[in-house]
Design a protein that fits this description.
This protein is of the alpha+beta class. It has three domains: 1-48, no CATH class; 50-85 and 236-323, Beta-lactamase (3-Layer(aba) Sandwich), CATH 3.40.710.10; 90-225, Beta-lactamase (3-Layer(aba) Sandwich), CATH 3.40.710.10. The protein has twelve helices and 13 strands. Helix 3 (92-104) crosses helix 5 (152-162), helix 3 runs parallel beside helix 11 and helix 4 (139-148) packs across helix 5.
Length: 326
């Protein structure tokens, strides 16, 4: 418990009900007495945090951490909220925004049928990497899989549909915009020299390298399962403020609520979520609507040159969300 709340320095209360005041939260305590007035049992409830304590706990993480908490249009808290960081699959919010715009413009429809192509096959997460080329899916299904299962093959298919240049409009640091298959291929063990060239290349030369690797087979998946390489520069880079803006623009789509992520959907009127993970990378971005109608966006990113703990970040993140209900 000390790892969660720190040192407890004071106890308030009387009779058999007390509150332990700790560094990063307070713990309700109840004691049971026998007829002689001696303590026979101590009950510790789930620790309570203030909003400020929950936010401050993010500063204990090693590496680079950003956090933004918005209440409507007002910023409640921010830690490096305007610093670009690698966000993993949270970039898919930008793809969804472009898709939503093109549907509104009549360029694409939700019911439009798309055939999977072999060149779009990627690695998990997702399920479509196991489907055969030529399989038919609607745009609605592809978008739903991209968000709810973070399906990489669905994502690359949609990027081809809407166009890389259109996605780059909402991802200005990500040029050329990378498809997931391109990231896996660049990081493959057989492309070590090509990756060095890519890192040193300008935007136009990088585009030529991506065209070159589009003809390659996917690397061996063991390159990413057994000992995944941390490559924060071969990623998708956004600020948490940009991610909050993106999720606000697409949160009205029903598919955004299929996977609520870390927040308890029973405690909120609506929860929209997208996360991202990679070696050394984690992001959680959630748009919440309270039962009284107040909206919140909570987005955090954690980058490190070592593996990061999803459980640790999720616990801190949930701590912030829970305080918004107090």
């Amino acid at each position: 418990m000390q790892s969660s709340v720190g040192n407890c320095k004071q106890v308030q209360g009387q009779d058999v009900i007390y509150l332990a005041i700790c560094d990063r939260g307070n713990i309700p305590v109840k004691i049971k007495l026998n007829p002689a007035g001696k303590i026979t049992a101590i009950f510790l409830a789930k620790h309570q945090q203030t909003f400020e304590q929950a936010v401050s706990s993010f500063k204990t993480l090693e590496g680079d951490v950003s956090l933004l908490v918005m209440e409507g249009k007002m910023q409640r808290a921010g830690i490096r909220a305007d610093d670009p960081m690698a966000v993993g699959s949270a970039f898919k919010l930008a793809v969804l925004k472009v898709l939503k715009n093109q549907i509104a413009e009549g360029k694409v429809t939700w019911g439009q049928v798309v055939a999977l192509q072999a060149k779009q096959q990627s690695f998990p997460t997702g399920i479509l990497q196991d489907w055969s080329a030529g399989s038919l899916l609607t745009v609605q299904t592809l978008a739903s899989l991209m968000i709810s299962l973070s399906d990489n093959t669905a994502t690359d298919t949609l990027i081809d549909l809407v166009g890389k240049k259109e996605v780059e409009r909402f991802a200005p640091r990500n040029r050329p915009f990378l498809k997931t298959r391109e990231v896996f291929t660049l990081r493959g063990s057989k492309n070590t020299e090509l990756l060095k060239k890519y890192r040193l290349a300008n935007t136009s030369d990088r585009s030529r390298i991506l065209e070159e690797i589009s003809q390659q087979e996917l690397p061996d998946i063991s390159d990413f399962v057994n000992n995944p390489k941390i490559a924060l520069d071969i990623e998708w880079t956004f600020t948490v403020r940009e991610l909050c803006s993106l999720i606000e623009d697409v949160a009205d789509l029903p598919l955004m609520s299929y996977n609520p992520g870390i927040a308890d959907p029973k405690s909120w009127a609506k929860v929209s979520f997208k996360g991202g993970s990679d070696a050394g990378v984690l992001n959680f971005t959630t748009l919440l609507q309270s039962k009284s109608g107040q909206s919140y966006c909570v987005s955090t990113t954690w980058n490190h040159n070592m593996p990061v703990s999803e459980t640790k970040l999720a616990n801190l993140y949930k701590g912030v969300i829970d305080t918004l209900l107090q």
